[in-house]
Amino acid sequence: MVNLGLISGNKGTKSVGLSFRIPYNTQWGQSLVVCGSESVLGSWNVKRGLALSPQHQGDELIWRGSTAVPAGFECEYSYYVVDDDRNVLRWEAGKKRKLVLPDGLRNGEVVELHDLWQTSSDGLPCTSAFRNVIFRKSWSTEIQRPLGVIQTKLDENDSVVVQFRICCPNIEEETSVRVDEVELLNSQLSADICDWQFYEIGAVEGNFCPETGPNRELVELSEPQPRSIILSDGMMREMPWRGAGVAVPMFSVRSEADLGVGEFLDLKILVDWAVESGFHLVQLLPINDTSVHGMWWDSYPYSSLSVFALHPLYLRVQALSERIPEEIKEEIQRAKELLDGKDVDYEATMATKLSIAKKIFVLEKDTILNSDSFNNFFTENEFSFEVEQHFYLSLSQCVLGQGWLKPYAAFCFLRDFFETSDHSQWGRFTCYSIDKLEKLVSKDSVQYDVICFHYYIQFHLHLQLAEAAEYARKKGVVLKGDLPIGVDRNSVDTWVDPNLFRMNTSTGAPPDYFDKNGQNWGFPTYNWEEMSKDNYAWWRARLTQMAKYFTAYRIDHILGFFRIWELPEHAMTGLVGKFRPSIPLSQEELEREGIWDFNRLSRPYIRHGFLQEKFGAYWTVIASNFMNEYEQQRYENIVLIRDPEDASKFYPRFNIEDTSSFKDLDDHSKNVLKRLYYDYYFHRQESLWHQNALKTLPALLNSSDMLACGEDLGLIPSCVHPVMQELGLIGLRIQRMPSEPGLDFGIPSHYSYMTSTYLLLQLTLILEIIAAMLHTELSNVAYWVCAPSCHDCSTLRAWWEEDEERRCQFYKTVVGSDSLPPSRCVPEIAYFILRQHVEAPSMWAIFPLQDLLAVKEEYTTRPAAEETINDPTNPKHYWRFRVHVTLEALVKDKELKSTIKDLIRGSGRSYPPTGEIEVQAGREKGVATAAPTKQQVTAGLEKISLLNESPKTEAVAVL
Which segments of the protein form a coiled coil according to its record (predicted)? Predict the structure, then answer.
């Protein structure tokens, strides 16, 4: 590339003008800078980049800037939003822009760049889920021909050369993109000010498809008129791609080969079934090691022992060696029969697998530990990145290049030796250090074989998951992982890097739909200030590790990256918490409002009358044994939470008006506190949380090219959705938990494209039917990801059976029948509901496996309540659900696969080809489907209404 510093002052050098133009609406105090790889654009130092000036053009704010560059100039560049001190507030998503000036420009001529701000949403088709899996091509789309030399054959007074650029990652083989009959990027177009659209041209003459939306326009040219315009037109405006997926926890899968629990290699069979059923995605729950307590409590998949290590639960012991002795094979067979139960027996399964694995390890350790493949794995995870990159190493680890594998193995040894994961009980090993670690894992240590056993297990887990992941990629199936928000208090990560965590606190959620007392997850909150010192390297490392296996992921509780609900370590529920970060109420502020008695508001306040009402004659026993009395028989109940680190700061307790302490206040104090409470929770923090998310989330998103989805449930600040949209994050909606005030259920047609919606069935049907009857065009409505349930909710069948009132409401409103609905969710109803979801105009329709099996009678014999994966209100819930049918049986079930595939085929969604490429309804890339016609809907409802008269046992097509 040209270094302008080398040619400065050289009068013989030909130079051209380079002019930047980009529309972008900023806020007060913000401006735009273009920064690039060459010194004229700051050499990637934003403070030295080219400042742009604003100019109003109608409703748009246009930013412009110019500089002189030598002919033949090349560089990379990006746009940045900065404050008055040139501090970066946000930057463009996606890859850096590349600029190569055309040849043949004359001295003093101007090249104008017409750019559009690159959003993360634009880059979704370029994520690994689409680029490497769904749209993966065997042919190259690289442009081999040069752009050519600009010749002065045109009338220089009224003509310019326009180079059109557009991103179209899903272009089919033997097709091209054209504008006004001129092939894109392979020719130059002379044009006056005009409008146009792009077309995708098929291999067959006359087979073309124009992009959607209004014509594009070439805006008024600047003065002096440029000789050349490089016009970046963003993405090809196609109908959005639509696909379907299946969700199931890894532990819930059942196969003929497993030992009591789903295993990584089972994913290959699941992928086969998914492909043959028309699914492009398989979604899992977290798969990291959770072996903290050594008992069934460890079945909770969101409480990680290590954010890098995989769970030994999912190991297939039969695949550890090709030379397993007969006696061990017989032991494996006996274990299969013993552990093949209705649910997962977590403790027995873990003990059995580790016992068998140790026996095989003893036989094979020398061979495996000296193999090239193991040494490569060990080296990669001992020094996961070059020290100078320090992507995932903490500050102390960066210096020494220490990886995660050794600390994990050492932790597991110490956990078992001391019979506890509480590292505060480990004596001299309580405080982690590199020196102590190296002695523990030394080849000369007596425990070296134990340490190597943990290496060995992680090595084989890696091989097995990597094999399954590559199989999924080749089959065109996206494997979607889950990134837990927390780590266990007694984990490898808190032992190695305690400075990254606030160990005297606990993470949770305020009261919500799931639990009126809130939730206390028990995880320590994060020390974001410390994490920022190495640009959130620990988080980036987690994503880099996940990207080895997954091409999409779900960010658990994404609200935690805006703010987290922080509780004192001793708290039992989620009630007495505060948001971190947040702007507290100061003592001075409260005093100005006439609030003076801070002890009264922040200390326990429960009168004996309240205890008498709750506990009757036993109130004195409760008070004397469980409460500390002070001041006229008042007990634990507070209105304001005093900051433990600054006694002059306070936080209003959640649901403040429900406390007896608040109810006993005078009217003035009540009115003041209600106003401050509302301001604290709904207005005061918005800017702070917006800025906080834009500091933390980009570090995650830029650390991998996986497709990212965010679980944004709970009390949603207004800043969340704009930030997620800006960053290209797909959100989550559960219709029974609407984020809009005043609604009993969310309205799917109001959701934005970048949301992932888990729909509650009946309103979805109502809206779709209304749209059909009104002949509503659905091609321009919002898009989302829909599913009838998720792992934190009851399944389709369970919902139908557990809530008679809503079931009757559904039957009357949607079916139009005043008779009583079936007490069970029979296959006809399940099919009807699934059909409505798959036909929604969403990017993804993802279905729990239990809901898909509900379309066939023989798979509905198990009580519906037993299919629920999690009870969010129970912190000690046993995560043990297993699908009662094997994957092999599902693969053989042609009727079920045909039924499901017909659902997807009829919806116009894309599905992976099985064998020969199949012709789908609509374009191969997926099209938005119009709502069912009124006649189709009526016919379907009539069939369902017959269920009361003549129940059927077969799954039938309703629509």
Answer: none
| Nearest CA among 333, 334, 281, 286 for reference residue 313 | 286
The pLDDT of residue 567? 93
């002919």: which residue's tokens? Answer: 71
C-beta neighbour count of 738 within 10 angstroms: 18
Provide the residue type at 821 as one letter. P
Report yes or no: 767 and 735 within 8 Å, Cβ to Cβ.
Answer: no
Is the CB of residue 535 less than 8 Å from the CB of residue 390? no
Please state whether beta strands 228-235 and 110-114 pair in parallel, antiparallel, or not at all (unpaired).
parallel
Cis peptide bond prior to 841, omega within 30° of 0: no
Q: How far apart are CA 691 and CA 398, in angstroms?
A: 28
Structural contact between residues 104 and 149, judged by C-beta atoms closer than 8 angstroms: yes
Query: What residue has token string 């809130």?
Result: 518
b/e code 269-303 from CB counts within 10 Å (16+ = b): bbbbbbbbbbbbbbbbbbbbbbbbbeebbbbbbbb
Q: Give tens-digit pLDDT for 245-301.
A: 999 999 999 999 999 999 999 999 999 999 999 999 999 999 999 999 999 999 999
Q: What does 91-135 look like in DSSP terms, one character per residue? A: E--SSPEEEEPPBTPPTT-EEEEE-----TTTTGGGSHIIIIIIS
At 326, phi and psi to the nearest 5?
Answer: -60, -40
Distance CA 834, CA 822 (A): 17
The predicted model scores a pTM of 0.83
* Residues 66-121: tens digit of each pLDDT: 999 998 899 999 999 999 999 888 888 777 899 988 877 888 888 999 999 987 77
The three-state secondary structure class of 78 is strand
The closest alpha carbon to 237, from 768, 918, 753, belongs to 753
For residue 717, say if its preceding peptide bond is cis, omega within 30 degrees of 0: no
**Contact assessment for residue 785 and residue 753, using Cβ atoms and an 8 Å cutoff:** no
Which residues have CB under 8 Å from 583's CB, separation 6+?
680, 684, 685, 688
- Whether the CB-CB separation of 630 and 603 falls below 8 Å is answered with yes
The pair of structure tokens assigned to 800 is 């139908």
Say whether pLDDT at 371 is over 70: yes
Closest by CA position to 278, among listed 796, 786, 852, 778 = 852
Instruction: Give one DSSP letter per residue of 622-667, joined into a string.
Output: HHHHH---BTTTB-S--SEEEPTT-TTEEEEPTTGGGSHHHHTS-H
Whole-Å CA distances, 564 to 483, 568, 654, 779: 16, 13, 14, 38
What secondary structure does DSSP assign to 396-431, as a single string? HHHHHT--SHHHHHHHHHHHHHHT-S-GGGSGGGSS
Q: Residues with Cβ < 8 Å from 617, sequence gap 6 or more?
A: none
Strand 50-51 relative to strand 31-36, pairing: antiparallel
